[in-house]
Amino acid sequence: MGKKLEFLRGINIPGATYGVIVLLILFSLITNKFLTLANIFFIARSSSILLIASIGMTMVILVSQIDLSVGSVMSLSGVIAALCLQNGMGIPIAILLGIASGIVFGIINGIMVAVYKFDYWISTFATMGVGAGLALVFANGETIPIADEAFGWLGNGKLFGIYVIIYITIILVAIMMFVLGKTKFGYNIYSIGGSEQTALLSGIDVVKNRVYVYICSGLFASMAGLLLASMCNSASPIAGADYSFDAIAAVIIGGTSFDGGKGGLLGTVMGTLMLRILTSGLNLMGFSAIWQKAIIGVVIVAILVGDALNEKRKKKNDMRRTYAYEN
User: 140-145 contacts: CB < 8 A, separation 24 or more?
Assistant: First the structure.
């Protein structure tokens, strides 16, 4: 029994986990439509798309940066894949070119921010505009239907009663949790976010690692865009419009600090679930999309304020301990 308790003490449970539990109980009491199988699958599938996009965003925020181009990269990758399929290029080419578009944007963001030291807000805002513009131009401002059933299977197919997209998400999250927690690259990410100066003194190539992080962000955004197009059986040039904000929200709700170096993918998983559960519950209660965004915004502000107060309290306690030790 003692060993079990010791093991449990070592598990760092993200605060968003408790938020998920509270929301599940709350909405199940408010509406009997919430815990239906159809709604649970809806939450799981919509969470999968957002979570994949949020993997890259987590990495970017861990190194004290931001990527506003995630949503437009999602739209662009979906449009490119749809056009490839329309022109008979086949699924492998469609997927490869869609992913390539995300990697290209990641490289551009990385070079601008890490190499040339441009402001990351302005740089990724610019590439967001470029990506959104290209998606609209390529699609001629229209939604492109996707008739390929094999491609649609990725977003709508099932294995053993569970959507394939959920399996894909679990695999990607597991891989990246290993990368962040057990590899040199993951160690470098946390080191850079914790203290760039210390990372430099430790011999870590900050520029190269930040470029890699932005490439990862573009990669996962493009994957999310492809799966979104697959799930919808169509590619809209504005399909990813809200995903940059949602991905940032999921990461922050999950406990990853804007200051960098703190947090991780487990928190992002819980933050994503909390966000999608909140959206689903509010939707079932009849709240409009505008009110949903307003309420989610209030939740994010409350979390940021809570984190700031918690950090302030920790610093005070550390100062008291230091003072007590010296005296």
Answer: 141/237, 142/237, 143/234, 143/235, 143/236, 143/237, 144/79, 144/82, 144/83, 144/86, 144/234, 144/235, 144/236, 145/82, 145/233, 145/234
